[in-house]
Design a protein that fits this description.
The chain has about 160 residues and is α/β, with parallel strands linked by helices. The chain contains 5 helices and 8 strands; from the N terminus they run βαββββαβββααα. The mean pLDDT is about 95.
Length: about 160
């Protein structure tokens, strides 16, 4: 991995390698880059996975098997900007499968408890429109949704 930019570290109990492979299977431009194992004398059993460096959607991550001391919460989330409903449906389905939890307004938790926002690229333009009536209609529609429905958002934004 290069040293340019940031690498996000995700703390898992024991699921680092499984999670890294899961994320790499979902996103394009992804790869497992390096796996490091705990040595003798470490706080976890020797030979078990310590860290997995991986790239998901061009972003660098490190998954750490650090134990059960810390868990994920909604204070940090990853935003997936989608260009169309097909992308929204794909990421929503893949990230909630096998134990993930759908949430409101395009938010969800995956099976590891990591929070994601599966959003529409166009949504920021709609809710930030200088016309307050258009922005309010788009915001009101979004607040009623779990998974985003881009066609319904566009209709609300247009006042239909």
């Amino acid at each position: 991995m290069t040293t340019d930019g940031f690498t996000t570290c995700l703390w898992f109990d024991t699921e680092a390698e499984e999670a890294a492979h899961h994320y790499v299977s979902i996103f394009k431009n992804s790869s497992i880059d390096r796996i490091a194992r705990y040595p003798e004398g470490a706080p976890r059993p020797a030979g078990t996975v310590m860290t997995v460096e991986f790239t998901a959607n061009g972003q660098r991550f490190m998954a750490l098997n650090g134990g059960p001391d810390f868990t994920f919460n909604e204070a940090v989330s990853f935003i997936v900007q989608c260009d169309d409903q097909e992308e929204i449906d794909y990421y929503w389905t893949r990230l909630t499968e096998n134990g993930g939890e759908p949430g409101p307004c395009g938010w969800l938790k995956d099976k590891y408890g990591v929070s994601w926002q599966v959003s529409a690229s166009r949504l920021d333009d709609m809710v930030g429109d200088p016309d307050p009536a258009k922005a309010q209609r788009a915001m009101a529609a979004m607040l009623t949704m779990g998974k985003l429905d881009l066609a319904a958002l566009e209709k609300a934004y247009a006042g239909e």
